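Check my protein:
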Amino acid sequence: MKRATAVISLLLATAVSPALAAEASESASWDEASTMFRKAVSRQAWETQAAVARDPLGKVISRKVASKQLTHQLPGAPDGTYVVVVYNTRLVHKEHAQETVTMMLEGGRFRGAGYFIR
């Protein structure tokens, strides 16, 4: 449970291509997520958490890459190949948001390992 909490807080609400993050359904994003994410968070928990985090903010108006970083270590996650992308995002009900999308290389492609918005 502690590991799941760490993964959720590090990574929280999407697991698809960053460009499609806000547009994808929670269920589809869970299906495309990394194995690590799916083991840490059940589909039902993900759908609930994603809706709680994103629905009140409304649709994305704009999203611009603020930074991107390739790394091989993340707190609470196994060593691997990760890309952490930070977006400056404008939503209908939140003028200045920051989304952090973490992707993990698995099976030859990057899969969602987590999402956090503030």
